[in-house]
Fold Heptaprenyl diphosphate synthase.
Amino acid sequence: MNKFWIKYPDLDEELELVKDIIKNNIKSSNKYFTQSIFPLVETGGKMLRPGFLLIAGKFGNYDKEKLHNLAAAIEMMHTATLIHDDIIDESKLRRGIETIQSKYGKEYAVYAGDFLFCQCFIMLSKYNYSMENLRDISNAISKICIGEIKQHNIRYSTKASLRNYLKIISGKTAALFAISLYTGAWESGCTKEISNLLGKIGYYIGMAFQIIDDLLDYKGDTVKLGKNAQNDLIKGYYTLPLIYAINEDKEGEIKNILENSRLKENDVKRIIELVNKYKGIENAERLADKYTEKAFINIEKLPNCRSKEILKDVTQRLLIRNY
């Protein structure tokens, strides 16, 4: 498993089992189709959402089989959204490997993502999950789609606002973190109060996580990210550091570059210089810190137990990233 979880051998082992469940459920009679999806599953990323789901489950009556399958379904859903994201963004790399759309074509990748969505709900139908949770998971998918549509609608727009940006990341990222923690708790018999609290924590973690991820587009490199650096900027997705900088750039130099030319390497370098000059990165870091602080304030409201300490530690390590 990814070294992120190695500090917790029990969780690390359980997430390997979750990955095995995913592999078993995406096996298709078409071997070529299966082989195209397997590498993305195998690399796995940090498996944050299933990890958080399992942590939340340990606040209640932990049913290993039930939660492992729920965690697998959530991760399959997340992977499906990544495959579709790569089509829209025409990304070449994902988790350090060639994307499905790059290797096999866009049409093929559409079906691969759709297949994972279908398998996710087939898995959910096999177990006695509450109708409320199934509805909430479906709502989370709707929020992801709406967030992505909103983001697409303001692509290349220099009029993107902080309010719109926060609505977008609330849907496309925070919703799945929130549902992971909420469903893990609720399916383990936690009270509504504890389940809602964990869902709120997931929301704040997701908001901070996405802001930090967007910061890496301005401060990271391709090798560290496992995807193309400055990809969002080049593809017309103007995220928080740039939004802050545009608002502070009274001379309008950033807008002029973005609106009057197709970005070249020198343009990208200049924009990054201006984002730093107008404290776009600094202000984005500050907002990420605010969401992180809200997550920790709410974690402190949870009952004292080992799971609370794990959640606190995992959140700390996740949100203090290379930015």
The chain has one domain: 3-319. The two ends are 24 Å apart (CA to CA). The mean pLDDT is 91.
